[in-house]
Design goal:
Length: about 500
Amino acid sequence: MTIQEADINLLPDPAPLVGGERLTSTSGGVHQHVYPATGKPTVEVPMAGPADVDRAISTARAATESWRRTGPDTRRRLMNDLARALVARADELAALQIVENGTPQTVAASFPHMIADHLEYAAGWCDKIVGEVNPVWPVPGFDYSILEPYGVVAIIIPWNSPLYSIGSIIAPALAAGNCVVVKPPELTPFTSLRFAEIALEVGFPPGVISILPGGGEAGSSLVAHPGVDKIHFTGSGPTAQRIIQAASANLTPVALELGGKSANVVFADADLDAAAERAVGFSLQLSGQGCINGTRALVQDAVFDEVVELCRRKAEALKPGDPHSADTAIGPVITNTACERIMGFIDRAVAEQQARLVTGGTRLSGEFADGYYIAPTVFADVPADSEIAVHEIFGPVLSILRFTDEEDAIRIANSTRYGLASYVQTGDVARAHRMASALDAGMVWINGSGGLPPSVPFGGIKQSGQGRLGGKQGIAEFSRTKNVWIGM
Ligand code: NAD
């Protein structure tokens, strides 16, 4: 497996993009980007440091007044133009996403269209953000409340689906009238930079969208900066804790999209073949590097062995391969460190006899040896309190747990500190509603998954986050209320 020269030539200038210009020298050091499928270096990424963060924030601040006064019709048109331009360059964006983090082509190809949909949906809100008239007493007056943009929103995204992340978060933030400073990780700066270049090309004013590739240092400078009016963070719980501490100095509001250990509850009355297909698909997609992956399948006693066997067959049918190839289902994980961390979970589960290894459990060798590939892995008879049932592994590992009845399923499903997504497979509609009500999660998908349309609120509860993207709530997330009273 190789990476083509043409793919490297596609990469944008990796330097920070601030106020429509590349920063020619940065203060955060340099990161050597590596293509995860081959372990081979591509380009060096100049990382933003505190001085660059400072510059990006003052540039964004300078742009806020004019952007918030820009008519909703102009914002709507620009966002729709951007959506169209992204679709026109969908192949190029997908190719960047593949090189950036090894996302298989079939998945990468869908992201440009998904984020165009998010932009178009949010564009439709630009001219529908309305206020309210409030009754007041005892003094006669005319009182109204309006939604205003925060101003400068700092958006910090992770490496697992950076194109989808930037598109789905920026869309409501821009529609609400904010300027954004986005910090993609140093591991995956390319799709964010190309997104912002295309936004400039379609006419977004410089300073409305700035991109600061960088690591923890850039992130911590950004969230501690007094010029940031709102923080939107997607990533892990420990980083979220650090961000909340840093944000407390300026009392900056924070929205969090964090990790999960989502339960997928399979009842004996479900269509078992479809349920197993989903159990495998929902957990192993993106090599397990998805926040909403249903990595804990809870299967009812009576059909346990049958479902485990179906899952084994379906997991073994997932073909690891070159991310550029259209028949590759499983790509690499992001880094060698991630590969070793994931193998640590697997090796401990086997050595400590935490559970029964059904399939996988190895790092792939041969043509995959230089890359970061792990075989699709399934464990069965996983105790609810074992390490692989409790921790977010963020690798291609499905843990299958056993339950007896509905009450038992709810108890096990809700026994983690997470509450992002959950899934239920059942043929009983009344049970489906009971489960939806009982599960501690921000989102419940029953008998399938409707994808991630921009019209529905996305987000978690418990240690999976706070705040929502999507729908009306996504616009509210990036707006604040002002009340006005006029004496009559
Ligand atoms: P991470 O927390 O290590 O990093 C996320 C981002 O935070 C990166 O851009 C990183 O550079 C930055 N960062 C690191 N230290 C920081 C600091 N002190 N201050 C500010 N920013 C800092 O997470 P990760 O490993 O990149 O991503 C994986 C995690 O993200 C998983 O837990 C996954 O479930 C979660 N995730 C959640 C969602 C969601 O929508 N809920 C989506 C994707 C990923």
